[in-house]
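Action item from last week, closing it out:
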Amino acid sequence: MATTRRLNPEKLLLSKWTAAAPRNREKHFLVVALGRPAPDMPVETVTLEAVHSRRRQTMAWQALRDTDQWLQGWQ
């Protein structure tokens, strides 16, 4: 069963994450961008970059709260 963690989306930039179920040898990720609809609006998305392949993916920042999908830090 998934648990959720408390995160402050404003502090996610350059944070490190580990995929709980790695695909394509992509296990470690770094948050490289925060997405906002306007500069004074709250964060809606994060862009993660895989350390191994440099592939980027954008998702809702709330997805990082799911411990079945993402582990905080590099493990």
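Closing note: The chain has a mean pLDDT of 93.
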